[in-house]
């Protein structure tokens, strides 16, 4: 019983340790002593973090007025293509605002004014969802509804939005912030219905072409033909090339593909007055400012660069200075744009890797400098990799010890302790429920949670599934041994 007790305890301790490591914020030891953001200090902060990450293709750009500094790692450079993840939302928001500026769409109009077939399973308070609500992530759609297709996306944009017909909102529109990927898919459908053209065409003609973003793409096949770097997954800390399938239906919220050079052009426009590089007024300066005006408080992020949400951008006011920021993560890529429009200062980073590789922390130190804080390097990659190896070794040790004890009992004709088996089975079930519940709450089902985990961190998902399974198997075996010995 003692060894089996140690088995259950080791599993719980390791799982708690892994849960702590894999959900901790990306911040740790300081590496610079200055809080002054310059091109050199920002580049140093990004390089320091990339050096602490897994070795992944990465590129960055730093805009300082009229000067642009580029950097690259593992063969990537300013013209290397990456998937930009949720940074795509800012492109969709800009396309919407261009339509607003032209009088084709009103921010205060219900979605059904332009997209009559849109509907949910019900409503809270009877108020319609407005265009503004979708841009602000205040549609009232629940987290589960927003992530309904996170692991099993619809085959088309229409299918993806139609899935919402089974979703009932959790709050009245405009009442609370819930980050909602599918909300931007709805906006894409609004643009399609109002223009009579596919969303990719709308985005190209209203945003990409006017801004001169000639190396930014809306479909993965074309991007691959033009040099898209393949994404990476870290397996037990080692980067493994694992191609990602582009999801056409998620273009509006996650699958624009671009380069550091094009995103520098994009940032310069975002920090300007609504005019493109050739002097054309794409949208009014007032509407561009409105896109950056945080109107909704983001719960749990007070005091950070994600304190508020505007339209396709997070914002924060730091000592009277506005920081405009948005990151993006897909199973194999990470991107981030952070801007200080009043200083004409921006940082863009792109990485072909997922969060456990440290990719999500690449811009953390640079953003801290933009906020007037000391830069730091996140140890997520090192600690996360160590936790995976420790957890795996403990699991192997647990299996070996349990098997040897079972074999010893059989050879010596000894019965297992009365509570040994039941306790292990209960511990396995409780552990499985505890580890699965957050994923189910996010994605809506156990299958979606497992598939989503497999896409993002296959080694971690195998480990967290193996622990409960091992406990249940050893517990069941102990129960069977005891029953047989009594016979």
What does this structure look like?
The protein is of the alpha+beta class and 487 residues long. The chain folds into two domains: 2-22 and 381-479, no CATH class; 37-378, Beta-lactamase (3-Layer(aba) Sandwich). Helix content is 45%, strand content 12%. The chain has helices at residues 2-23, 39-52, 88-101, 131-136, 143-146, 157-162, 181-195, 199-211, 220-225, 260-270, 285-291, 364-370, 380-411, 420-443, 446-456, 458-486; strands spanning 58-64, 67-73, 82-83, 232-235, 238-241, 257-258, 296-297, 308-309, 314-318, 321-329, 334-340, 345-351. It has an eight-stranded antiparallel sheet, with helices on both faces. The longest helix has 32 residues, at 380-411. 49% of the residues are buried.
Features:
single chain, 487 residues, alpha+beta, Beta-lactamase, 2 domains, 8-stranded antiparallel beta sheet, two-stranded antiparallel ribbon, 12 strands, 45% helix, disordered N terminus
Task: Give the gist of this structure.
The protein has 487 residues and is α+β, with helices and mostly antiparallel strands. The protein folds into 2 domains: 2-22 and 381-479, no CATH class; 37-378, DD-peptidase/beta-lactamase superfamily (Beta-lactamase, 3-Layer(aba) Sandwich), CATH 3.40.710.10. The chain has helices at 2-23, 39-52, 88-101, 131-136, 143-146, 157-162, 181-195, 199-211, 220-225, 260-270, 285-291, 364-370, 380-411, 420-443, 446-456, 458-486, and strands spanning 58-64, 67-73, 82-83, 232-235, 238-241, 257-258, 296-297, 308-309, 314-318, 321-329, 334-340, 345-351.
